[in-house]
Amino acid sequence: MTHTPKPSNRGRPRSITREKIADVGISIGLPDITFVGVAAALGVSHMALYKHVPSLEALKHLIAEEIFRRWELPQASSPQKIGLEEYLLGFTASTRQFVKAHPGVTPFVIRRLAATPAMLEKISTHQAHIAQAYGITNEQSRWLLSTVTFFCISAADTVYSAARLEPLDGADGHLEEAEMETELVEGTQALIVGALELLNSKPSP
């Protein structure tokens, strides 16, 4: 009688890629990232994950960089129809949604020293695109976008962090968030108007 060997229960080791790590990390959320949690979601041991990412901080940086890489920055597709002020309003709306959708990402994108070369390259490319679209210098574009983005990201992080807290007794959490978001939008609009006025009053380098 011919003996047929039983198939092994051991399959091929799961491959660990940067994209898979990022997908899992994004689904977990940066505030709740742990090595054990990411490894478990990937179906590997935490020691196997350590072979690809050397530390928890490096793991968070990888995930934050991938979050930023996947952010589709609004392009100035019709600068003749959409002025710079209107573009910036749309850009900051995208920025608010970016921060809202990814709690914990702000420290990695607001600190220049924490930004990776790939993140800095994306920022620089976007600044050059806006400079060319609206006929301003690269330095003017860098200052304008940096100023508006810094305020919007930091303020949005504060608003949405507060909105995630348990509402006070008798308070409507959704209403409270809507009120704070309205103030954030109005503050951003005021900043954009003021920044453009200041930009126009400065002589071009």
Number of domains: 2
Q: Helix coverage percent of residues?
A: 55-70%
SSE series: HHHHHHHHH
Question: What value does the Rg take, in angstroms?
Answer: 22 Å
Low-confidence stretches: 1-9
The mean pLDDT is: 88
Morphology call: globular
Structural class: mainly alpha
Beta-strand residue fraction: under 5%
What's the CATH H-level homologous superfamily of the largest domain? Tetracycline Repressor, domain 2
Largest sheet: number of strands, sense, barrel closure: none
Name of the top-level CATH class of the largest domain: Mainly Alpha
What count of helical segments does DSSP give? 9
How would you briefly describe this protein structure?
By secondary structure, the protein is mostly helical.
Overall description:
This protein has 205 residues and is an all-alpha fold. It has helices at 18-28, 35-42, 46-50, 56-70, 84-101, 106-110, 117-134, 138-163, 173-201. The longest helix is centred in the last third of the chain and has 29 residues, at 173-201. The protein starts with 17 loop residues before the first helix and ends with a helix.
Task: List the main descriptive attributes of the protein structure presented here.
single chain; 205 residues; mainly alpha; Arc Repressor Mutant, subunit A; Tetracycline Repressor, domain 2; 2 domains; 66% helix; globular; disordered N terminus
